[in-house]
Amino acid sequence: xxxxxxxxxxxxxxxxxxxxxxxxxxxxxxxxxxxxxxxxxxxxxxxxxxxxxxxxxxxxxxxxxxxxxxxxxxxxxxxxxxxxxxxxxxxxxxxxxxxxxxxxxxxxxxxxxxxxxxxxxxxxxxxxxxxxxxxxxxxxxxxxxxxxxxxxxxxxxxxxxxxxxxxxxxxxxxxxxxxxxxxxxxxxxxxxxxxxxxxxxxxxxxxxxxxxxxxxxxxxxxxxxxxx
Length: 228
Fold this sequence. Notes:
By secondary structure, this protein is of the alpha+beta class. It has helices at residues 6-19, 27-34, 38-50, 66-88, 97-104, 110-119, 166-175, and strands spanning 54-57, 61-64, 145-146, 155-161, 182-189, 194-199, 202-207, 214-217. The strands form two sheets. A six-stranded antiparallel sheet has the order 3-8-4-5-6-7, with no helix packed on it. A hairpin with a 3-residue loop joins strand 1 and strand 2.
């Protein structure tokens, strides 16, 4: 197999983000995620198939092969270690590191990445709560659910932010809606698409789309009191 170019790497990582473990990803979904045309995506899929990184399924899309998944997980690991290093060691803002890591992941050597991982304290998660694959490509499984799915009175811990938009993340950071924070659903008004949340004793009202991408985990055996 030829050495993967940056374009190859971007496509493989996008396939993993959309399809995870073996799911089929359509050409249109992949093109939309990468902001490129469908014909360009089709051509790249053929090249990746020639290199053994994807399997093509006529009229359905493509999915990663075992080799493609290994490459994708290596890229994900690099990206998330870089984000952790930028935040923990260099003090870059939590909401702004994604784009910097996107650039650096293609250029930092394995030796430098190991040093960054060490200086960052060998983190298990990136600043947005995503688990960092280990050096063997293993990823910890977690049972997460969208914040908006909580019922009134339920409390949960924010574990992961599935959004790369700096403006949205800055707003969540301002609210305190960050990985590790405990949030309680005070009230749900489905007809108005409004949620009332409580964080650190403060209440916020937002629409469902306003917290889309915020994933939470409920403590095992947790009991909730109805909001007063």
